[in-house]
Amino acid sequence: MDAAVLTAARPRGDVETLARLAKGDMAAVDALILDRMQSQVPVIPLLAEHIVSAGGKRLRPLLTIAAARAVGATEVENALKLAASVEFIHTATLLHDDVVDGSERRRGKVAAHLIWGSATSVLVGDFLFARAFELMVETGAIRALGILAQASGVIAQGEVLQLTRAHDLNLDQETYLRIISAKTAELFAAAAEAGAVGVGADERTTAALRSYGLNLGLAFQLADDALDYGGSSEALGKNAGDDFREGKVTLPLLLAVARTRGREDAFWDRTINGNQRTEDDFRRARELIIGTGAVSATLDAAGDYADAAKAALKVLPRGDWRSALESLADFAVSRAS
Amino acid sequence: MDAAVLTAARPRGDVETLARLAKGDMAAVDALILDRMQSQVPVIPLLAEHIVSAGGKRLRPLLTIAAARAVGATEVENALKLAASVEFIHTATLLHDDVVDGSERRRGKVAAHLIWGSATSVLVGDFLFARAFELMVETGAIRALGILAQASGVIAQGEVLQLTRAHDLNLDQETYLRIISAKTAELFAAAAEAGAVGVGADERTTAALRSYGLNLGLAFQLADDALDYGGSSEALGKNAGDDFREGKVTLPLLLAVARTRGREDAFWDRTINGNQRTEDDFRRARELIIGTGAVSATLDAAGDYADAAKAALKVLPRGDWRSALESLADFAVSRAS
């Protein structure tokens, strides 16, 4: 059964339009990243290159650039540095996350800690985090720096919260949203906000871009959670079913557990609380999660956040950048169907 | 054999004079630390409190306060916040260090990662690091922020360098000094420099305080290294012999290896490269290290750095604060004899 049949038609959207517009800026950001991850200690650039070059879509620094450009900035030197800082912070959290979760793969490659060891991964994460702040200091944009410092604190708190509650079937939806807001959406929000602040945008525009980023981040994360049960591994960029295999409680699972209360409690208790999960269990979980409409409900929620993200952009001047950001919000959800 | 008999008499010095002068300021710093380590996620303040309250002498924030006061500042609000930031950065590196080294004890207590797990320790370290930068942003002292951001990067690089070379008998003295400069002395230097910059001291004074901190940090670290072979566990605050037990290469060991070349190669090769170390081996290593004068040579080097630290203070106005800082430099070495 495909998740696509369960969701109402939505605009498809894409990320390429924005990537094309930002191509020159992003090349400059990549050059900055490469330059600032160097160190006299040979293993540092080696490990950093392993994860940075795998790259993916660089959505977060793209948001910083897009925010600066969308408010009409032509002098984007600060935004480039802030964008590189955002990617450094993101990479540092990925390195630490993979150590914390014992993940085996990242961005389609073997996770760094399996090659260089957990110790080095932790320390190179620290190094990249420090480099992020050094770059921000160069901009002199102390307010942008404050936004990203605060976001870093929120992310760490979200990760600790997830760590302590990730396998808890009694997790309520509100706490779950709090976790993904902190762990994922906060950096999207801060990336966009910092881009606007870094080029001197006014309060109203800055707040709008923060709201766009936050809602976009929630849409992306919820669509990811849905894809893990309703999508193909290709669409997901990692193996479908990984959340279940790791016993990770996400919104589709929480909804399905609630919707099968009294009927499947033993199954959920054994597989999630009891940590006994076979591939047959995954197929059964997937059936229950799709069958109860939990995947489509999750995608509906993602769609609502994508709509809120687009609505936030209305205070921005119309133009190519704003349209591309709108399309990115649609893409967050449509890639999952 | 006691290391004391091997070293020339030096002024004894103490830390209490400075601690007494800074008592009021440090109480304010402690209150700030307690306030800013709070979080809605319950395990975070719990873990932070475990390591922060064990506290020790709080040498690094003490340096920030002393630097600000020694240059004559009376308005020290910024210095208080910078001092708390310095302690947060230090605490974050301790948490990560203990995970990286698998250390069992810290500040006389069970290491946090053995109570709450490595994952939580890594993430709470990240949280404290982020909080440090949030506090610095509040001061608006972007130059001080830059100094501490850079120091954080240097520390991480020093730790990676140590990780890759710590058990290498071919480590040369220069690389060893590079490691302890980065890993230990840099934060002492940055703490003092940031304190001066945060209250608007001139370039010459700021550079002098940085130099004081750097040399003081080297003196402390070398005296620590000497104490591990020549001192008592009480003077050290940890078990004497821990460096040897962990196969960690420090200056006394490097000197002894060089001074017993052709005679004890097999012993060093088995114990350090071969990772076979009994308590008898430690006693033998200790005899060789003291017998060849390697402990006293290390203490002499520490003494030279302490003297350089004191000399750097000459550009500062005479007074209680300067005297107390001089006494602290002497204490760095005299506590080891």
Automatic annotation (TrEMBL), chains A, B:
Keywords linked to the UniProt accession: Magnesium, Metal-binding, Transferase
Q: Which Pfam families match?
A: polyprenyl_synt (PF00348)
Q: Which InterPro entries match?
A: Isoprenoid_synthase_dom_sf, Polyprenyl_synt, Polyprenyl_synt_CS
Cross-referenced Gene3D superfamilies, in alphabetical order?
A: Farnesyl Diphosphate Synthase (1.10.600.10)
Q: Which cofactor does it need?
A: Mg(2+)
Q: Which PANTHER family match?
A: ALL TRANS-POLYPRENYL-DIPHOSPHATE SYNTHASE PDSS1, GERANYLGERANYL PYROPHOSPHATE SYNTHASE
Q: Which family would the database say this protein is a member of?
A: Belongs to the FPP/GGPP synthase family.
Protein name per its UniProtKB record = Polyprenyl synthetase family protein
Taxonomic lineage is:
Bacteria, Pseudomonadati, Pseudomonadota, Alphaproteobacteria, Caulobacterales
